[in-house]
Amino acid sequence: MEAIPRVRPPKLCKRRGRGLFDGEMTRFGEKAAPSGQKHRRRFRPNIHRLSLYSKTFDKWFFFRISQSAMKKVKEWGGLDEYLVRTPDDIILYPFAIRLKYEILKKRAEMQKNETAGTENTQGLASVDSLTTEDISKQGILWNR
C-alpha cells in the first residue's frame, strides 16, 4: 500500500494550492498608454466555483476550478479521470491529491474484487465502464 504524499503549495502563488487551477497562476505584465507610459498589471486565471461529481464515490465535491481544468474534466470524462491522469505537481491542491489517492485505492479494490469472483459480479459495473460513460451524463453543477 503506497503512502499518500504530503503536498505543500509553492510560495509563488498562494491561491494555486486552493483549487484545481491546472498549473495556471497569476502572471504579471504591463499596460501601455497611448503616451507610452507603462503600468504594471496582473493577469489572473479564469476561476469558477462549481461542484463536480465523482463516479467512484457517488458524491458531489465543491471546487474552485480554472477554465482550462474544467475543459479537461469534460474532455476526459469526469473528475475522477482528471485527477487520476494529472500529476500531483500540476494539481497542487492537497484535498484533490488525497481524493486522487482514495480514488486509486477504491479502483484497485474494485479490480481485485472483480478478478476474485468474475462469475458473481455480472450485475456490477466494471472500472472500465465507469470511465467511459459519455460526457453528456457528466455532472457539473454551477454555484452562482
CATH topology: the name is: Ribosomal Protein L24e, Chain: T
Tally of DSSP β-strands: 5
Please tell me the total number of domains: 1
CATH class: Mainly Beta
Name the poorly predicted regions. 130-137
GO cellular component, one term: mitochondrial large ribosomal subunit
InterPro entries: Ribosomal_bL28 (IPR026569), Ribosomal_bL28/bL31-like_sf (IPR034704), Ribosomal_bL28_sf (IPR037147)
Family: Belongs to the bacterial ribosomal protein bL28 family.
Keywords: Ribonucleoprotein, Ribosomal protein
Q: Can you offer a commentary on this structure?
A:
With 144 residues, the chain is of the alpha+beta class. 34% of the residues lie in helices and 22% in strands. The chain is built from 5 helices and 5 strands. The strands form 2 sheets. The chain has a 3-stranded antiparallel beta sheet. It has a two-stranded antiparallel sheet with strand order 1-2. A hairpin with a 4-residue loop joins strand 3 (47-54) and strand 4. Helix 1 (67-76) packs across helix 2. The protein starts with 26 loop residues before the first strand and ends with a strand. The model is unreliable at 130-137 (pLDDT under 50). One of its GO terms (cellular component) is mitochondrial large ribosomal subunit.
